Amino acid sequence: MLMQRSATGADLAALWELRTRAVRATCASHYPPDVIETWCATRPPAALPLRVRAGGAVVAEENGQVIGYAILNQDTGEVDAAFVEPAHQGRGIALRLMRELETMARLRGLARMFLSASLNAVPFYERAGFVPVREEVYPHRSGIGIRSVFMEKRLPQHA
Known about the structure:
Strand 6 and strand 7 form a beta hairpin. 28% of the residues are buried. Helix content is 33%, strand content 32%. The protein has a domain at 2-111: Gcn5-related N-acetyltransferase (GNAT) (Aminopeptidase). It has helices at residues 12-26, 33-41, 47-53, 93-107, 122-127; strands at residues 2-6, 57-62, 65-72, 79-84, 112-118, 131-139, 145-154. The longest helix has 15 residues, at 12-26. The chain is an alpha+beta fold.
């Protein structure tokens, strides 16, 4: 049975491993092998445990296994990550996770969410209500530039 819950510090290693599997499986159609290898070889960012501790990370879990996660910077509205295990993609898991991030953002009074989408993920984020703003080269922590699309979603505020 699929469940959603807040991520915890105990999930950190599993989240990073899931991210690496997803990048290797889904981004290879849009990026050359050397970019994928450099991207996947990087260590987790220092912000990852901070976002988890702040309550900005949600996971999808099935049969005790984390099969997806999404992370929101609750101060700025930036979606830091959204990944689903390749074998579980296409089931609507990522859309459910994004709806949870949107709820978090609204509760924080944020007017928008934004992200830098990998080229392969643009159609997914469009389905989630994000609008492409511009193509860009994302300055990855590894030192490489990753072609991407800056996207945003305006959040209507309810009275």
